[in-house]
Amino acid sequence: MMIDSKKYRNFSIKEIKDGIQKKEFQIKDVLKACLQCICSYEDKINAWEEHINDFNESEIITSNCKDLDLIGVPFGTKDIINTLKFKTQMGSQIWKNHKAGNNARIVSRLINNGAILVGKTVTSEFAVDSKNKTKNPWDISKLPGTSSSGSAASVSCGMVPFAIGTQTLGSIIRPASWCGIYGMKPSYGLLPRTGILKTTDTLDTVGFFARSVFDMFILLKNNILRDLNHPTIYDQLAVKSVNKKKFKIGFLKKKSSKIDHKFDQFLKKISSSSNICLKEVKLPKWYEESLKIHEELYNSGLFYYFKDEINNHTNELSDEFLKRVNKVKYYDPKNYKYLLHKQQEMHTKIELFFDSLDVDFILCLSSNDSAPKVESQFQDDYNFLWTLLWLPVLNLPHLRDELKMPVGISIIGKRYSDFEILNFVSLLIKEEFVSIKCKIP
């Protein structure tokens, strides 16, 4: 049966799977609705670098695979992630029309689980700071985010139910905040990075944008690395068996934010729950040093991995990219080793910090304000810190500013507490896995 495109735009992963299993519609109907949505809004949003315009029904998974968790679910992936079917150009003129010749490991996992890759989403040059062509579906005069902006915008306006992004500074959580959707930067290393552009080895993190908590659970469950180095015991933390314990929650505030009062209202609302005990916390003194450590690691990584582009294609690089790498006079292995030592030291300190506070999670604003105008500078927030410390972060898209623009709340836990965060959020929002409505421009 035909699927109304307005209905499709609000489909969650679970709703697509259930509809296919119950034979309410077929996979080809989902893809037709997906393509109709992309064609209707892409000229205004510019979320895609490349996408399918048609599909071959022989490529669609047959009916004997209907139990796959992601059966028939369309998705997009950031254009620094290798794909066999589409070019991988990394937002760079230098790499225009480049074909990787393989799928990144996470793309293969998703496809093997029934998901259907419909295209590559727009990214900034080499996933760094430069602005790109993507618009914010809530207000096309505003920024959609940073380097994962295409992935965030494609989910926000309902083109796809989920998309892959990456974060080295704040490029999952900030776009999710500004585009009003769920975004998760998992614990560092939890999702496979094989076949993905490297910018900084100990910062680059793969994650997802989606429209419900349960969808995020499905995506993590099916893609996490399962070995002794990644001790996330997902089968003991299933979302449907939420532990009704008393949660101890710390919250961080930045007094400069224009939306502090909205955050205060949210905190007051959840504090009425008998399961939640709130207290304000302040970051330790070593926080001030962390910004410098992150910046030096990031800039050194870029200088190391993009030597050829810097030496031979300087005129084709953006001012934003050059500004970062020009801060590094030369790659110093000794200094880089020192930075890694400091990062590891901070990992130990943040674990002790959580223990000393006696909190399960920390809440803060995902961005200091709603999306700024395109010509504005990016805003300061805490995202670099959580990335540096390898902590899992979920953006909760439940705040609006005075102009009804979205602003997210970050929920941060200890490393490998990813599923515990999802458990907590399913209690917090008190609407069991209900998908948020997309923003239709």
The CATH architecture can be named as Alpha-Beta Complex
Helix content: 25-40%
CATH superfamily: Amidase signature (AS) domain
Roughly what fraction of the amino acids lie in strands? Answer: 5-15%
**Span between termini:** 26 Å
Please outline the major beta sheet. 11 strands, mixed
Order of helices and strands: HHHEEHEHEHEEHEHEHHHHEHEEH
| Number of domain modules | 1
Tell how many strands the DSSP assignment holds.
Answer: 11
Number of helices: 14
For this structure, the CATH topology is Amidase signature (AS) enzymes
The Rg value, from CA coordinates, equals 21 Å
Residue windows where pLDDT falls under 50 for at least 5 positions = 234-241
Shape: globular
Which oligomeric form is depicted? Answer: single chain
CATH class: Alpha Beta
Average pLDDT? 89
